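Pasting as-is:
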Amino acid sequence: METGDKTYSTRDLNQLTVEQPDSAINVRSLSGLVDYVKLNFDHNRKLMNHVKSPTEVNVFDALNDVNDRRTYVRAGALLSSITFE
């Protein structure tokens, strides 16, 4: 639908020339995260580590030409849960 100088859609549209994000790899330890970063398996891009919380660390790259960034790996602590009654 076009209204004035703007175009709208009732469906999700993706630009085909832009790389589509993949889901991040989930690991359960910081050593797994470090091994992934050292290996340079998927890319040769500069990476940033983000400590999101005491139990989660994310590794992502710089913004691309359409201001999106890709998260490659997430380390989430595997914590035991204790239920008290």
